[in-house]
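[agent] plan:
  1. take the single chain provided in the ticket
  2. run structure prediction with default settings
  3. attach structure tokens to the ticket
  4. add a short note for the reviewer (M.T.)
[agent] executing step 1
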Amino acid sequence: MDVFEAVADPTRRDLLERLREGPATLSELAAPFAMTRQAVTKHLDALVAAGLVRVRREGRHRVHELRADPLREVEGWLAPYAAAWDRRLERLGQHLGEDT
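[agent] step 2 finished; step 3 output follows
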């Protein structure tokens, strides 16, 4: 799975958001979701396959950690679109300023 496909899913984006706070176990990650742990595991497996999450053993637990570097690909792809939106918002601001 590529990074774009991985972040296209809102549940996966929520998991990444949670992992921004720091490493977490499956139980910690699954707690806020109204789905089975098995379903959360499938989402985590997709994030691991995309290189966005790393799993390590800590005693009996598997700890999940964010690997944000692959998101640079998404950031690079989005940059021209963000610049275009900035220009549009600037023009809108100028237009609205002229009417007042």
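[agent] step 4 note for reviewer: The chain is about 65% helix and 15% strand.
[agent] ticket updated
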